[in-house]
Amino acid sequence: MSARDLRAFLAVARTLSFSQGAQQVHLSQSALSSLISRLEQSMGARLFDRTTRSVALTTAGAVFASHADQVLSDLEHAATAVRDVAMVRKGSVAIAALPSLAARIIPTLFRAFNEQHPEIKLTLIDTLSEAAFDLVRDGRVDFALTAANPAHADLDYVPLTTDVFVLLVADDHPLGREKTSVSFVDTLAWPHISMPRPTSVRQYVDAAALRSGIQFHPSYEVSHLATIGAMVVAHLGVAALPAMAADVIRGSGIVCRPIVGPVIHRSIGLIRRREGALSPAAQAMLTLLKQEICSAAGSPGKSKSVRSGRR
C-alpha cells in the first residue's frame, strides 16, 4: 500500500465519485477502479458500496478513510522534516573543542553559521582533549576540534591547521625585553607555569623537553588560561603555550616570543567517528569551520593551515 494508493482512495471517499476521483489523481476511471479493488482484496473488506447511480463508503471504508487521512498527513510531515534537514533548515550540531579553540574560533564560527541557518540548534562543549575524544566516541557531539593523539586510532582525524608554541612572559621580564626568538632550552632556567599532564599542551611541552634530553618540571600546574595569564603577569613564571591559546590571554602586561630550539608544533584537527556520515547541518558547519581555521592561520600566532585529509 503506497501513498499514491491512499490518495486515490481518499479522492473517491471525499467526492463519492469514481469519475471525479480519477480526475483528481490523474488516473483513468478504469485504473482507479482496479486500484480500489486491489485495496479491498488486500484488506479483505469492501470499502465502497457501488451502484450505477451512487457511491457510498461502507463502515469499513469510513474507518479506513479516517486512518488513511492521518497516515498521509504523517507522511507529508515526515517528508517536510527530511527536506528541512537535507536543506539545513532544521536540525542540530554539537561540537566539542579545546577551551583555547572554543574562545578563539567558535564564537565567530557560530555567529556566521547562525546568520546562514538560524533554525539550527548549536551546542558547544569546551573541554580538554581526552574528554573531547570520549564525547565523539559516545556520539554526544558530531565532531571535536582538538589536537591530534595517536592513542585514539579508533576515531578519524582530519588535520586542519598547525599551531606553533610561543613563550608568554611579563613585559618587563628579561626574556620579554628580547626582540628575537627564545630558545626553549633557555626558558627552562626560569620557573614555568604549565597545564596538567593529561592536557595536549603539556604533552607537547614534555615531548619537546625530552627531545632536548631534559625532564620538564613546571613550578605551577593550572588548568585555565586566565590563571596562567595572571600568574605570568605576577612574575611567578613563564608559560609555553600554542599561539591560539596565547591569543586568548594576550593583553596588557604580557608579551609573546617565538620559541625555537626546538620549534614546537601542535597539529589541530577534526575528530569524528569512523562510521556514518555527518548530517547536512554538521557538514555545513565543517565547511565554515575550515574557513575560520584558515582565517585564524593568518593571525599573529602564525598558525599554518594544512590540507584536509584523513590520518
Task: Give a quick set of tags describing it.
D-Maltodextrin-Binding Protein, domain 2, 9-stranded mixed sheet, Arc Repressor Mutant, subunit A, single chain, alpha/beta, 311 residues
What would your notes on this structure say?
The protein is of the alpha/beta class. It has three domains: 3-86, Arc Repressor Mutant, subunit A (Orthogonal Bundle); 93-154 and 269-305, D-Maltodextrin-Binding Protein, domain 2 (3-Layer(aba) Sandwich); 161-265, D-Maltodextrin-Binding Protein, domain 2 (3-Layer(aba) Sandwich), CATH 3.40.190.10. It contains twelve helices and 13 strands. Strand 1 (48-50) and strand 2 (55-57) form a beta hairpin. The longest helix is centred in the N-terminal third of the chain and has 28 residues, at 59-86. The radius of gyration is 32 Å and the shape is rod-shaped. The model is unreliable at 299-311 (pLDDT under 50).
Outline of the structure:
With 311 residues, this protein is an alpha/beta fold.
- Number of helices, counting only DSSP H or I runs of 4 residues or more: 12
The ordered H/E elements are HHHEEHEHHEHEEEHEHEHEHEEHE
Report the radius of gyration as a whole number of Å: 32 Å
**Hey, roughly how much beta strand do the residues contain?**
15-25%
CATH architecture of the largest domain: 3-Layer(aba) Sandwich
Give the CATH topology of the largest domain: D-Maltodextrin-Binding Protein, domain 2
Main sheet specs = 9 strands, mixed
Global mean pLDDT: 85
Shape: rod-shaped
Q: Supply the number of structural domains.
A: 3
